[in-house]
Amino acid sequence: MTRDEILTRLRERILTFATSRLQKDVAEDLTQEVLMLLHEKYARVTELTELVPLAFQVLRFKMLDAHRKSLRRGEYNDQSVDDLPLANPGDDPASQLDQKQRVDRLIAAVRQLGDRCRELFTWKLEGNSFPEIQTLMGQASINTIYTWDLRCRKQLLSLMGGSWE
Prior knowledge:
The chain has helices spanning 3-19, 24-40, 48-73, 93-112, 115-125, 130-137, 142-159.
């Protein structure tokens, strides 16, 4: 049996396993990712007895990653837009004043931050991921970016008076 035939049969098994635990479209995406990884990174693995456990281990990691990502994005608490009440277009003047004061405090605090923190927040607000920010800042380790982010957020919270409210 050739490697392509093995991968074709393995795909069916992976997809069945993933579909039993995830939605069909997510399961198909993860199956494709696993097969691509096996083809590109583990091309040297040809024995079926090694390939099957490896494929399922990679699939489990991919499933955990997808689960963490959906938790982080809040996808488990999704509600239909039709079920949500319509927002009141006009807030009362007290709420508007409170909101304006919070925004003014935030802007004043951000102005007191160093250049690195302002750049980091700017790139985060533009939608860049941490690996993209790592490249933009020219850092070798992503952990450096995580550390800077934590420190910048703590500094901003401190400048805001210890509370976001």
